[in-house]
Structures are given as structure tokens and as C-alpha cells.
Amino acid sequence: MDMFIIQGGTRLRGDITISGAKNAALPIMAACLLTRHECVIRSVPDLADTQHLIKLLETLGAKIWRDESDALHIKVEDESCCLADYESVRRMRASICVLGPLLARRHLAEVSMPGGCAIGDRPINLHLRGLEALGTQKISLESGNIVAESPYLKGSEVFLGGPFGSTVLGTANILSAATLARGRTVIESAACEPEIVDLGNFLNSLGAKITGHGTPRITIDGVEELQGSDYEIIPDRIEAGTFMVAAAITNGELTLHNCRTEHLMAVIDRLNLIGVEVERLTNAVRVSSARRLNPVDITTQPYPGFPTDLQAQLMALLCLADGNSIITEKIFPDRFMHIAELNRMGARLRKEGPTVVVQGVRELIGAPVMASDLRASAALVLAGMVAQGQTEVRRVYHIDRGYYGIEDKLNKVGAHIERVKE
Ligand code: EPZ
Predict the structure, then answer these.
(1) Can you give the pLDDT at residue 87?
(2) Do residues 191 and 335 share a domain?
(3) Segments in the chain below pLDDT 50
(4) Is 117 tagged catalytic?
(5) Distance (Å, whole) CA 90 – CA 145
(6) Domain co-membership, 223 together with 327
(7) Which residue lies with its CA nearest to atom 28 of ligand 1?
(8) How many angstroms is it from 168 CA to the middle of ligand 1?
(9) From the alpha carbon of 26, which atom of ligand 1 is closest?
(10) Reported pTM
(11) How many domains does the chain have?
(12) Which of 121, 125, 132, 164 to mutate to test the pocket of ligand 1 (most atoms within 8 A of CB)?
């Protein structure tokens, strides 16, 4: 397994280009199962997660290749296999996003129930309730696999609200499935994330009839068949937010290119209160910070609220604020594996249920730490870049799932991160 050895204390300066959004790419790649025509998808980042979904789609009969411009081509050639097995889903819960497309196109889907993971329980009850509302004739649990079977789907009103707000991949599954349902579907309490907007735009480029994506009410008029498409996915707002924190935590100055600031309003709002300068440029943003950081309160919410995927990164930054901050996690209440590791580096974090008191300290001290999940790992890299001395981050395979070449991008602007075999 790989490990990062990070020498702390350098201020980052320079330019970084943001890659395509992992969480837009995954449901869009899965939606290619809805058509036999070739789809070309541009800016799909070459990550462990996207590589993993490519393998799963190939077992489901898709031919997949990248052309010389690095665009991903997906063409379904064999629709006989409808099984996404435990091995596939165990390694990436987002594999669940093949459920809706498989059922709608092949009338049968057998997908392993995703287990829990480091950030908490990953239920799919809302996905299944949505498919039931679309008239799925049979949904059962057989040896750990969800088996959904239906000769056709029927448009209807589908409510996707849950105790923690809506569901992003649940919305993706129902939105995708409804494109081939008979009649009109209205999804109430749909997720509004930019990645759902991107999926809706992609599906419309295939010939679907979707309106309202990006709002809590999405309307889909089913069609007989979908075509192919050549589509460019949106930039990764979570990668961009992570690098904004990198500029702030090292007291440096970074210009992030291919960055859609309208996707980061809640994050920019908090960063401004902390004392971080965020200058909006054309399709880019320049970020710098004063040395003194103000404490703030953060509560994670569904989009357009503060994203749970940037909670750990902001926690790392607020470890160095002048005073106490309060961070409350409303989406995944157990998403705090990074606390113990940051405390090993001299942070003063105290968890009280879904809330963490972040007592600002003067400095962090480098130490050996363990990555546990994708975004917690990013927080440890951020802390390592500002800590005094050396930090070793173990199990960086977590970070490879969602950040394309993160050490190269950061070293190019002054970081000292070395990838070694553990
Ligand atoms: C997506 O996961 C993202 N993953 C996650 O990003 C992100 O943290 C999450 O949305 C929330 O924004 C991808 O897009 C691949 P949810 P998803 O269903 O769709 C509860 C990352 O770091 N819930 O929106 O699986 C659930 O327990 C990853 O890139 C139900 O109760 O998340 C959670 O509390 C991590 N029943 C809340 O809803 C359900 O059927 C939001 O989950 C489904 C979800």
C-alpha cells in the first residue's frame, strides 16, 4: 500500500487546473446502460472509482475505451448480464447507480446491497421506494442482492425525502429509470446537487425529456428509446473546495482554473467569514488568506447548503483558527474518522454526537496518521502541509479514489509530498 511522506511548512503559490467531477461522472457513465448507441463523455477523471465502474460496466456488456483526446467512449454491445455483484459494490458503494438504468433498459437488475463504510451506514431504502413508485413488479433481497424485475416502468409521483434530506444517487437512479418509463414521472424532494443537474443534461442530450433538474421537483416524460451523445461533464467542486482550503491553510495563494464558483457558494461564504480572500475570475478563482483565521460555525446540508464532502477539509483549516468553531454533520452523523488522526497532530477536537467543538491551536505537529475514507484523507494531507515537521499518511488508496494526481498538483505549487510504498 502507498503512503504519503509530507514535509510541512511551505506556502502554496501558483495555478492548479480542476479535473472533471467524479460524482458527476459515475451516474453519467452508469446511464450509458440506457442506450445501445455509443456515448462519448469528456473530462472523466482517471480515478480508482471511475476505473472500478468501467470494470463493472464491462461485465454488464459495455465496450469502453479512451480516445487520443482522453474522452471516454462507452457502447453497450451485450445486454444479457444484469448482475452487479458483491465484489463490485463492496469496493465502491456508488456502484448502486447501475440499478435504475439496468432495470429500465433490461427489465431486470441484480445489485448487491451496499454495506456500511467509514463515513457511516449507506442505506438504499429511498432508492427502492422510488423504484416501487415506478411500478416495479418485483423487488426482493436474495443472498444480499437486491433483485428488481419489471417488464416495464410506469411514470408516477415519486417522493425521495428522507431523514437526512434527499438522496443524491437515489435521485440519479430514479431520474435515469424514469427516462424510459411509460408516461410522466414527477420526483418530489429530489436532490439538487450540480451533479444531478449534469446527469439530467446528459440524459436530455440522449433524447430524454427532463425539466426541473437542479430543483426539488423534477419532471420526466418517458420516451421509447434513447440515442447516443458527446458530452462534457462539469468540474469537480469538491476537488476545487479542497484546493481552496490548501491555499488558505498554508497561507499561500492559488489560482484554480476550470472552477465553477456558482457550485461553491456555501463554501465561499464560510471561507470569507474565516478571513480567506476568494476572488472570482472567468471560470477560475484566486484564493489567499491572512495569517489570522477566524473561527466559524458550519453545519452540513444538502445542496445548496454546505457540502458534507468538504466537512473534514474545513475542520483541518479551523484547527488553526483563533478561537472555537462548531461543526455539525447533518448528512452522515458518523463522518468523523479524521478527528482522532488530527488530534494526533496536536489539534483539539471534541466530538459531542453529530457536533464537533474545534478549539483553535497555534500549530499542528507532523505525525504518522491513517487515512480512513476519501475526504478524511484529503484533510490529513492538508494538515500535513501546514504541520511542523514530517507527516506520514498511510493507506492513501482512499485518496486515489477521488483525487486525480493530488500530490503532483500540490507539489507543482510548492508542497513537498512524496509517495512511497508503505
Ligand atoms: C453521494 O452519495 C456522494 N457520492 C457522496 O460523496 C456524498 O457525500 C453524498 O451524496 C451526500 O452529498 C456520489 O455521488 C458517488 P445520499 P449518496 O444518498 O448518494 C441517507 C464522496 O466523498 N439515505 O445523498 O450515497 C444517507 O444515509 C462521496 O465523493 C437514506 O436514508 O448519498 C445519508 O444520511 C462520499 N436512504 C443521506 O441520506 C437512502 O435510500 C444522504 O445520502 C439513501 C440515502
Answers:
(1) 85
(2) no
(3) none
(4) yes
(5) 12
(6) no
(7) 309
(8) 6
(9) 15
(10) 0.98
(11) 2
(12) 164
